[in-house]
Amino acid sequence: MEIQKTQYIHKIGDYFKSNGIRAISMDRISKMLNISKKTLYKHFKDKNDIVCTLMNFQCKSEKYIFKQITNKADNAIEETFNFSRFVTQNFKDVNPIIFSDIENYHPDALKIMNNHKRVDIYNIIKSNMERGIKEELYRSDFNIDILSKIYSEKIEILYDTVLFPDRKYTFREKYEEMMMYHLHGIVSEKGLEYIRNRNTNKNNK
Predict the structure, then answer these.
(1) Cα 187–Cα 147–Cα 93 angle in degrees, nearest 5
(2) Could you tell me if 20 and 97 are in contact, meaning their C-beta atoms sit under 8 angstroms apart?
(3) Residues with Cβ < 8 Å from 202, sequence gap 6 or more?
(4) How high is the pLDDT of residue 76?
(5) Coil, strand, or helix at residue 135?
(6) Which DSSP state fits 121?
(7) Distance, CA of 7 to chain centre
(8) Cα–chain-centroid distance for residue 79?
(9) Mean pLDDT along residues 16-45
(10) How far is CA 21 from CA 15, 84, 91, 158, in A?
(11) Are 130 and 144 in contact (CB under 8 A)?
């Protein structure tokens, strides 16, 4: 992707993240970027093209970052905590309406997002579980395929503002509770002891 277009995508992504997608016209996007609509249309066919380009960019970026996290983590549990740190830092300010906008008005982008979730994220979680079992930090008596699918699908529920009102819960609080619930469901005695020692060391700092 050319440098100028990449810069536009970064700015548009931040704009959508705060305001949602449906309410934002091409006119507003061009004004936000401080360019003419003619220039905007040189880079993107329409708003759907913007949303799809942004979704592809986001998914590829996440896949790369998660791979780096995996390579640098000392073990499967640290990998999970590092995933959590990345997700909570990068998704805490996302306007929940963005998901319903994509689902209802941008089916092509929805396909990209679902493929990322059901292939890339699924494989990342699956690999983490396999790693944890080899390291004896996770038990081996659970169905990796089923749990990987459940965990990769349930992040969207955290954006349900009826179930989780913003005034009552922060995104970080919701995600970290979900992560710990997940970990405590699969860790072995060795893994549980690792988490306890980790928490003790963290509290003593």
Answers:
(1) 90
(2) yes
(3) none
(4) 98
(5) coil
(6) I
(7) 21
(8) 15
(9) 95
(10) 9, 26, 16, 19
(11) yes
> Which tokens in the block code for residue 28?
């507003």
Secondary structure tally for the chain: helices H, strands E:
11, 0
SS (H, E, C) 155-182: HHHHHCCCCCCCCCCCHHHHHHHHHHHH
* CB-based contact 69:86 (threshold 8 Å): yes
Tokens of 76: 């499967």
114 is written with which tokens? 């679902």
Q: Which amino acid is at 7?
A: Q
Helices (H), 92-143: 97-105, 107-115, 122-134
Question: Per DSSP, what are the bridge partners of residue 138?
Answer: 187
pLDDT tens per residue, range 60-105: 999 999 999 999 999 999 999 999 999 999 988 899 899 999 999 9
Go through the chain and tell me how many residues it has: 205
148 and 129 Cβ atoms separated by less than 8 Å: yes
